[in-house]
Amino acid sequence: MSASLNARIAQVFDEPGCDVNQTKGEKARKKGCTKQLTPGAAAGGCAFDGAKIALQPIADVAHLVHGPIACEGNSWDNRHSASSGPTIYRTGFTTDIDEFDVVYGGEKRLFKAIREIAETVRPPAIFVYQTCVPAMIGDDIEAVCKRASERFGLPVVPVDVPGFAGPKNLGNKLGAEALLDHVIGTVEPEVSTPYDINVIGEYNLSGELWQVKPLLDALGVRVLACITGDGRYREIASAHRARANMMVCSKSMINVATRMQQRWGIPYFEGSFYGIADMSRTLRDIARLLVQTGAPADIVDRAEALIAAEEPRAYERLRAYRERLAGKRVLLITGGVKSWSVVSALQEAGLEIVGTSVKKSTKEDKQRIQEIMGDDAHMIEDLAPREMYRMLREARADIMLSGGRSQFVALKARMPWMDINQERHHAFAGYEGIVTMVAEIDKAIFNPVWQQVRAPAPWEAPAVALAA
Description:
globular; Nase_comp1_CS; nitrogenase activity; Nitrogenase iron-molybdenum cofactor biosynthesis protein NifE; nitrogen fixation
């Protein structure tokens, strides 16, 4: 790896906001809180994949992958990050380097690709992603991007994230570093208000941001920038003028919140949009933080009035489902913020949690799980498919909530399954989202197909029954 990339990785893990790091010495602190995977063993995605996931929801930007076509093909459009306008982000741009470029270098091809995008698509910015092959042959994408930016008069942002640098989560943070180095703070907003906030680590999966934004609008709070769901380049570039930051998924972009606090003095808190209680807590935290940064104090009263109106309506809609789902058991295989925020939401619907995975969760996430579930907290670090299958059968879970890769384990166990990760088609955020989530769980559990698949096939019926 290049010296600049090594330095950037070291900076990512120098995390002052982490409670664990604060107890370490200066030298140990810079080693970070987690041990990096060996290159080639980055289970769950590589660094490039993580950066693409984190940045591609910026909807009006052209995302150009410098590398073999498979790098772009394998990562294209695999998350339902919705846009309210531009669709440039869904177009796959790649330099598609070949053996000739490996021998002679791919910088000329990269420059030509940038020129073609600038002249034909004319986006407000182009993001260029470094992958393994051009990194190993020594292509200097930062120099190419700088020259192209001067030549074509638009920002060309280098994202130096070769897959061999580490796992997907490291790529999330390196993508965030690209925003901090080249985007955030480069544009001034046209209008600034005391109610401006940034939402960080929210990707607008299936339009979840759109379920929360009306609540913030009713509170009088303006989302200056969402980093990065349904994002716009100019909004993110002017995000340094917000009065407060909300951190949604700390595992992916905590470095954005902490660096913005260091550079521009913007305070942040970590919140969740999942579940009634957590949604209300988030509205209160936003109001509290804005008052601390100079907003009128009456926003706290407006937040309480909004919560008083929304909570009874949501609980009333959940009442019918609570009666049907009382005592039903859920196995939750996810990670990060959902490892605890979804637990809270499921408990509000009267569901019992058999276990929740914490493979991609921070220490703070695990503490929240312990606070929510108490002595019943069953946290799963890593679960092989065989163990997942055994747990489903032995724990007698009624449904498993996970990502698409785990669904076949549940189906083999003849258990209901529902997608809780990025491939899903339903939005679960806000007061409206919790009702949608519980309704989908109800549909899955009480689907009559499960009675049919669990019944023995005709050729498996007892011999006596066949004779009769």
